[in-house]
UniProtKB/TrEMBL annotation:
<dbReference type="InterPro" id="IPR011990">
    <property type="entry name" value="TPR-like_helical_dom_sf"/>
</dbReference>
<keyword id="KW-0677">Repeat</keyword>
<keyword id="KW-0802">TPR repeat</keyword>
<protein>
    <recommendedName>
        <fullName>Tetratricopeptide repeat protein 36</fullName>
    </recommendedName>
</protein>
<feature type="repeat" description="TPR">
    <location>
        <begin position="56"/>
        <end position="89"/>
    </location>
</feature>
<comment type="similarity">
    <text>Belongs to the TTC36 family.</text>
</comment>
<dbReference type="GO" id="GO:0006570">
    <property type="term" value="P:tyrosine metabolic process"/>
</dbReference>
<dbReference type="InterPro" id="IPR019734">
    <property type="entry name" value="TPR_rpt"/>
</dbReference>
<dbReference type="InterPro" id="IPR038906">
    <property type="entry name" value="TTC36"/>
</dbReference>
Length: 193
């Protein structure tokens, strides 16, 4: 193994334009071995994570089936297991939030929705669903400006439901819809003036 001084001399010969002290030959064989071991660890972690994600997806499907069969408390337990298996996967939090909403446990649902949004970084399918659900909860609490913001974010992610909510929450659109409703109601009754 070459000394540091030897590496600097070799660097000057092979890289004359590179500043002194910035060696092309900085890595020792031990550094190479350490880098290779690190890469192997990352590969193993990726394999474990992908197995965890597969397991979490299976659990989520099981949880959805339980919720569809009216077993909402059981569904929450299953979604909680999915979250334990893959805690950085936003979908599990989203699904559990939906189950909490069915049981009217809004504060628990809100925590899960916030987690889903944070984990998804506000992007993708999970974020779109979480913004919609959180918008509904905020609207239920009478926090319309915050709800509208969430619906706008979900609409930007492609949610037709959220787009409809944004239109409905627009005071001018609401007034226009009310006037149209009145006109059509009068037409149906035959009250044409």
């Amino acid at each position: 193994m070459a000394s540091k001084r030897d590496q600097e001399i070799l660097n000057c010969i092979f890289n004359p334009l590179q500043p002194m002290g910035e060696s092309f030959f900085n890595d020792s064989p031990a550094d190479d071995l350490e880098a290779e071991l690190y890469e192997r660890k990352l590969t193993i972690l990726d394999e474990v994570e992908s197995e965890n994600i597969k397991e979490a997806k299976k659990l989520e499907i099981e949880g959805v089936k339980a919720a569809e069969n009216g077993k909402t408390a059981e569904a929450i337990d299953i979604f909680s297991k999915a979250i334990q298996v893959a805690p950085t996967r936003p979908s599990g939090y989203n699904n559990r939030a939906q189950a909490y909403r069915l049981l009217e446990k809004d504060s628990e649902a809100m925590l899960d929705l916030n987690n889903a949004i944070n984990l998804s970084q506000g992007k993708g399918h999970a974020a779109r669903q979480a913004f919609c659900q959180r918008g509904m909860l905020l609207r239920k609490e009478g926090k319309d400006p915050e709800a509208k913001t969430d619906f706008e974010k979900a609409a930007n992610l492609g949610s037709d439901f959220a787009k409809a909510q944004v239109v409905e929450m627009n005071p001018y659109a609401a007034l226009c819809n009310m006037m149209l409703h009145d006109v059509f109601t009068k037409l149906q009754r035959g009250d044409v003036e």
